[in-house]
Amino acid sequence: MKLDALKFGLTLGIVWAAAVLCLGIMTGLWDWGAGLVKGIGSLYIGYGPTPGGVVLGMAWAFFDAGIGGFIVAWLYNLLLDSGKK
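User: That's the sequence. What structure does it adopt?
Assistant: Structure tokens below.
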């Protein structure tokens, strides 16, 4: 069964952006996961437990996971097709 690469990428982008949002909110409100936010912030420029930082992190996360998910689904489909020949 083939994967729709665009939908797979969008799904991963949305899920990862939501996770980054939740983590940023939890860190901002209760200081939970501050080390993880700091680590992710070293990859996603501007990400932090502030409203603006969370929005920047969500944008980075959406595009990062979206592009990664698209590539994974495309490669999966490519390998699936090569196995049928």
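DSSP finds three helices and no strands in the chain.
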